[in-house]
Structure prediction request, 513 residues.
Amino acid sequence: MARPATLEPGPMTIATDTATPIRVRIAPSPTGDPHVGTAYIGLLNFLYARQRAGKFVLRIEDTDRTRFVSTSEQMIFDALRWLGLEWDEGPDVGGPYGPYRQSERTEIYREHVQRLLDSGHAYRSFETAEELEAMRRSQIAAKLPPRYNGAHRELTAAQIAAFEAEGRPAVVRLKVPAEGETAFRDELRGAINFSHNNVDDQVLLKSDGFPTYHLANVVDDHLMRITDVIRAEEWISSTPKHVLLYKAFGWELPRFWHMPLLRNIDKSKISKRKNPVSLIYYRESGFLPQAVLNFLGLMGGGMAQPSEEEIVAKGSSLKQGDIFSLPQMIEKFDFKRISLGGPVFDLTKLKWLNGEYLRALSPEAFFQALRATVFSDEYLRRIAPLVQTRIETLAQFGEMTDFFFKDDVMPAPEVFVPKKRTLEETLDFAAEQLAVLEATPFTAEELEPALKKLGAEKEWPVKDNFMLLRAILTGRTASPPLLESLIVFGKARSLDRMRRFIDAQKRLAATRR
RNA sequence: GGCGUUAUGGUGUAACUGGUUAACACGCCGCCCUCUCAAGGCGGAGAGUCCGGGUUCGAGCCCCGGUAACGCUACCA
Prediction:
């Protein structure tokens, strides 16, 4: 892999106190579109590795077969490469500690689980999912904290044999010590303690034979010689379980760095409901990877603002302080500076930044960027057949297809509300359509029946059903074929357009009242 | 509910080991430039640093006590 010289550890390289080479990893789950959160944590890990001449590993965390999406893994690869976050080891590039896909490591997990069973750090538990669910409900009803009650912690050999004879499937759980506490150090926050009263007997091996995150993550991090676990803050609460596992195996602990969570405007954890969260969306909407990376680098504030002397020395203007490249981040990004409050992912500022990058392009580079994205041959080639029979001069192509090239369309209520329907009913139905589209792969064979099924359930005639969707997607009542348009425009952008539409209309309706 | 984390303008961040009227960027408003719109230039409004105590000549920075937000609380990650 050819890397620009600037990416090599420069004078700012941080000396580490250990002789062991630094190794970090990201472990995305292939459950859907690649997520901005993955890019954020990916960037941070990448920077950390590059600053210390370490290795950046990509591991695919595909142990949940119920949420597995087969196309997801490739999309993750593509999105990370688009951003320029190249990994040194991973499922597609190999490496000395493979395999890098957890579904290919089940034998390893089984062996390790057996070790825990043998050493008494784990035990088999035979409750069914339904029984556990019932237990949880009654605990919540009784206002008790929902926790595993430990019923099978001390089964006798005879009891275990009986359950097995019954053919009951088992899970393996971590045997958390009844007393005491587990403490660990977070590199950004200092010591964190958890009383064992508050650490559940986590399932380590599911009844389908796959490990849970907790087990797989610890085993793999150890086997892959990961020295620094840089991950999102949401993992703090489960870190004691991980620490307990390291100890049970007798392994050395990695350093833990928990990064603040990216937030929606209302400060909740970033989610697709309130923010475009798919990296596909950003790529297809014409954001430049450098701008996205730059923006992500702003989140958490690891880049010091330049001092006045530096500004004078460089002769640059003050606002350049928010603009920096990946090599500059490698040089200057300081993990100890990261501020812990959850940063709001503010699309407005991202757009400004992207505009700065666009303006900085040479005319030729700008033209090439256009040709590579919104006016790519590939895109045009897919749109062309949708309009060929519908236009009389080639110039009409523009009118017919404008919505394919817009960032936003916003039809008026006269356009999208069917006769005999109220605005409110219509928006409610649009929300139903959105839910269906989210759950459906974007192919004609899948989309059509799914939408028709919804229409039948809610008693919306096909005509009104499709017309509403057409209005939302295209902004008008006449357009190329709806389903094909949806598919070509793409799932990420289509869903975003719908969400924005519903949000905006609800807000409008509220102000009218 | 329990546990954990966090807390500086609307948003992202600054403020060296406590030291002058809390700084920069985005956004917002106004003016200039201009055929328009952007961009660019200039200017402005907007926080007294979550709240309450304390230490100190002096606190956004230190101590104590609250509050709020967020996260976790799954055979999901």
